[in-house]
Amino acid sequence: MTAEQPPSAGGIPVGISACLLGREVRHDGGHKHSRYCTGVLSRYFDFQPLCPELEAGLGVPRPAIHLRERDGNLHVTETRGEADHTAAMDAAIARALPGLAHLRGYILMAKSPSCGMDRIKVHNADGQVVRRDGRGRFAEALMAAYPLMPVEEEGRLNDDGLRENFIERVFAYDDWRQNVAGDQLSARSLIAFHTRHKFQLLAHSEKHYRQLGPLLSDLKAAPLADIAGRYLEGFMAAMARQVSRGAHMNAMLHLLGYLKGTMPEADKTVLLEQIEAYRRGEVPLVVPMTLLRMAQRREPVDYLRVQQYLAPYPDELGLRNRV
Ligand code: SF4
Description:
Layout: E1 12-17, H1 35-40, E2 45-50, H2 52-55, E3 65-70, E4 73-78, H3 86-96, E5 106-108, E6 120-123, E7 129-134, H4 137-145, E8 151-153, H5 160-179, H6 187-196, H7 198-204, H8 206-215, H9 224-239, H10 245-257, H11 265-279, H12 286-298, H13 302-305
Parallel strand pairs: 1-2, 1-5, 3-6, 5-8
Antiparallel strand pairs: 3-4, 6-7
Helix pairs in contact: 7-8, 7-10, 8-9, 10-11, 11-12
């Protein structure tokens, strides 16, 4: 992170399925402890656990539940028998959702009929699987209520690219919520946010980069809150796209353009070699990025000093060693 934009004091508030923190809240009294979440991410995230099934009063242990389609509607029922917990689940979810508005991200437990984000089995009245494209009852409501909040399944955080992307989005969203959202919104805060995330935008989606800049060119064209809302929607959609090696190369070369006048020729040659080596998949992103950061620090250019692209999250997470 740059010195200007520390993450939320006390850790960034991120929601999490309670069983991932090791809490014994699963239907069988067990948990699904994620060592990555409690051992690594908890140094930066202030995890706020929730077990929707427990909130619905289903207790521990409890009969296993699944999603069942009946009369064109999805129900939460016990896997054996007919006991239907849909109303209790929906009431618990409706109670919980307003208290999650401050979160900057959410990590969900996969395969759960409550928390699973994708590929959840849906059954018919006979208990047979009729499709596998369902979403957990809580996950569905969470993502509908907070469509811009970064949400990811814990299992997918084992993928280097998905993990890096999710964490980058959480830090960027935290920046917005701390410095632009609500009372913080002003033409100045909006432009400053866009300025410091410009190269991230360019790397994630050149299309959004070209749309969002002009959107801010006339801040009197519409109420500022409307423009900010449209901007954030486009920004988060762009950030959800994973960055290809070619797109990182393009962003790094753009950045280098601001340093060219001051950089010694020999340094420039090494940097270009390493950017090319990164494009070929021979070195991870951290290699050319470290050289770029060294160059930027030696010749501080104000515009580059604030760029979150150079350090979108704490180096200690080691994410750029693996993409
Ligand atoms: S997956 Fe969700 S509902 Fe199931 S035990 Fe974990 S937190 Fe509770």
